[in-house]
Amino acid sequence: MAGWLDRRATPLLFGLAAGSIAVAAAVLAGGDAAERAGLAARWTARAGLPLFLVAFLASTLVHRWPGPATRALLRRRRQWGLGFALAHTIHLVALGINVIVFAPGRSWQSLIGGGLAYVIIYLMALTSTDGWQRRLGRWWGRFHRFGIYYIWFIFTASYAGRAFGADPDKRVVGIIFGSIMIAALALRSWPRRRVAQ
Length: 197
Hints:
Blueprint: H1 2-5, H2 9-29, H3 33-64, H4 68-75, H5 77-102, H6 108-126, H7 130-136, H8 138-163, H9 168-189
């Protein structure tokens, strides 16, 4: 397991598979083109979430539960972030088709908030190298820390909106995934004990 997690390609393959499976499931489950597009937009967002959580929690997991698997996740944290960027690119395409073709009229707040999240995702992906880390110095860590918390916020705000909405089905989804996001933040924020790596 740890050996598989420590491969550079694993997170990218996982991101590609997660996004592709979500699209395929939406195509099979939807009754018509509009429903398929809506399902693809929703399910691809959820498909990318586990990859984000790995990148968000990698350091925390190795401090809480040190072992070969968690150390492998931490060593490949940048690749998990790139896998998330790949999965969310699939989501962006699905969302774009849904918004442009089938469901225009999104609020400007969601477009600005989500659009900024994508700018941050791609800037983080482009600067996820040792060379960029050396060039940016301390600003590299500050930007990536801000970016990962902003992406966490966008996910959480999106699910919170569903949790307090009128649609019972969306409310259940919002409560479940919103709770996962809050639990992830609580785990990341919990005081750590030092461990040898």
